[in-house]
Amino acid sequence: MSVFSRYSKVLEADGNPMRVRTALQIINSYIDEFLNEQEGEFDPDTPWALTWFEQYQFEPGQYGDAETLSKAKNTSIKGLAGILLAKNGKVRLLKREEMLPSPQPSPIGRGRIKAGSNDWEATQHLIQTLDKQGETGAALLVAQLGDKGKICRDLAYRLYVICDRQGWTQEVISYNSLVTS
């Protein structure tokens, strides 16, 4: 059985056949480069949340580490109050179900989202809406978000890649569902 390609092998610069592992490392480095460029599209708080999530997921970490990261990402722990819990010297990202929606329903009467929500928060609300109201509810919320909907999709893809690499299956499913919807 042959493979659906005109190339029988990929060669290294020195002419030797490239190992699959090497090819995958090269592919992953280009994916990482592309995804890192996308971070420039996100609001200032979301890169902090991405980095924290990659290290801790929704588990607590040291407040000092969170503060150092916030300075490196040009934000503040106080400014991240809508997406994290800081208590007893520990910090953790809030799970989707812990995030508070806007006290007012959206004009379309479906999903709720706070005005001025950062990209992380909007993406988590989208996933929660998709889980509870299906694609129709999520589509209505995306319509309400306007241009932020594309950014949320890009963020969900970035989170999918992180979760896939970490082996966080349930989170992989959530982010993949949002991207494909």
Mean pLDDT: 83
Beta-strand content estimate:
5-15%
Compute the separation of the termini in Å.
Answer: 35 Å
Structural category is mainly alpha
Taking all Cα atoms into account, the compactness measure Rg is 19 Å
Helix content: 40-55%
Poorly predicted sequence stretches spanning 5 or more consecutive residues: 102-111
Number of strands: 3
Please describe the biggest sheet, giving its number of strands, its sense, and whether it closes into a barrel. 3 strands, antiparallel
Describe this structure in words.
The structure is a single chain. Strands 1-3-2 form a 3-stranded antiparallel β-sheet. Helix 4 crosses helix 5. It is globular, with a radius of gyration of 19 Å. The protein has about 180 residues and is mostly helical. The model is unreliable at about 100-110 (pLDDT under 50). It starts with 19 loop residues before the first helix and ends with a helix. The chain has a domain at about 110-180. Helix content is about 55%, strand content about 5%. Strand 2 (about 85) and strand 3 (about 90-95) form a beta hairpin. The chain contains 6 helices and 3 strands. The longest helix is centred in the C-terminal third of the chain and has 27 residues, at about 120-145.
Q: What can be said about this structure in brief?
A:
Helices cover 55% and strands 6% of the residues. It is built from six helices and three strands.
Keywords:
3 strands, 55% helix, mainly alpha, 181 residues, globular, 3-stranded antiparallel sheet, single chain
